[in-house]
Write a structure and sequence with these properties.
The protein is mainly β. It has two domains: about 140 residues, Jelly Rolls, CATH 2.60.120; about 90 residues, no CATH class. It is built from one helix and 23 strands. The strands form six sheets. It has a six-stranded antiparallel beta sheet with strand order 6-11-10-9-2-13, with no helix packed on it. Strands 1-12-3-4-5 form a five-stranded antiparallel beta sheet, covered by helices on one side. It has a four-stranded antiparallel beta sheet with strand order 16-21-22-23, with no helix packed on it. β10 and β11 form a beta hairpin. The model has no long low-confidence stretch (mean pLDDT about 85).
Length: about 290
């Protein structure tokens, strides 16, 4: 690429999504932003013609440039506005449901940079700015290798769905059409709550394998009619059906024994344990 080149990624980043990359081992200096405000031709100093930008340096360090604040408590923070050397690091750009944007260290689960100004909810397109000429391979590796994933606390069409895979479901209730997956990972000590008001169709809740072939640890809860059909579920210590209509439930990832546990939490401040998974998770997020 020539000095003054601007390239735009062809895939947009939506609310609740993140774009993930494992960085190359060696870098050439360039800048990233989400818009370009300069001239179509002959623009000097293109990295300054954007409303916000961060820099990837030739020494394999990331740095703020325009409109980003570094997290000085991050594991990979170095000094000033620079990170430590990050060749081969796994990072992501996350677009939160509240319109905020950050750069995330996936290896250490740290926020590296936070964008000072929130976006407006519209689709973002990553732009790359080059202040010096570099070869095409070095220029495009940062555009080609991004992968787009869900991550927010919302429901998404399952990635194996034929129609609208990974698309965030905006409704207050799931429509029962196919499979959905939670975007936000669950860690030990966390839970997901929901109100049960489905008296007709069957619903299954559990943890699936990465290729969506099986329920991990043979574990799923079957809901149908007015009850949790524990007699027809697998992987739990109770086989007694449990009345569920108009109640609030939580599936919790226990932080002590790492087992999933189903609670009735309808009454504020009162928890009733319904059933516990027979096999513990592996401490990692699910």
């Amino acid at each position: 690429t020539e000095t003054g080149t601007v390239m735009r990624h062809g895939t947009g980043l939506h609310l609740g999504e993140k774009m993930v990359i494992t960085t190359p081992d060696t870098w050439k200096q360039h800048f990233f932003g989400f818009d370009y405000t300069g001239a179509a031709l002959g623009q000097a100093n293109v990295p300054n013609n954007t409303t916000s930008a961060f820099r990837c340096n030739a020494n394999e360090k990331m740095a703020g440039h325009i409109g980003w604040t570094i997290n000085t408590d991050a594991t990979r923070y170095d000094s000033g506005t620079d990170t430590e050397v990050m060749g081969g690091a796994k990072i992501s750009i996350r677009y939160h449901l509240d319109n905020s944007v950050d750069i995330f260290d996936e290896d250490n689960e740290d926020i590296l940079f936070t964008k000072d100004a929130d976006m407006d909810g519209s689709v973002l397109y990553l732009h790359t700015f080059f202040s010096t000429a570099i070869n095409a391979a070095d220029a495009t590796v940062w555009l080609r290798n991004w992968e787009f994933e869900r991550f927010a606390a919302a429901w998404y069409g399952h990635p194996e769905k034929k129609y609208k895979p990974n698309v965030r479901y905006p409704g207050a209730t799931l429509d029962g059409d196919g499979r959905y997956i939670r975007g936000e990972k669950m860690y030990p000590g966390q839970e997901v709550q929901w109100s049960y008001d489905q008296d007709v169709n069957y619903t299954y809740i559990g943890v699936r394998s990465s290729d969506d072939n099986i329920w991990t640890n043979n574990k799923n809860v079957k809901l149908g009619g007015t009850q949790f059909l524990l007699s027809d579920s697998t992987g739990w210590d109770s086989t007694t059906d449990y009345t569920a209509t108009n109640k609030i439930f939580a599936i919790r990832y226990d932080a002590i024994d790492y087992k999933l546990k189903l609670y009735n939490v309808t009454v504020a401040g009162v928890e009733t344990l319904v059933t516990t998974a027979l096999v513990a998770e592996d401490v990692n997020s699910i």
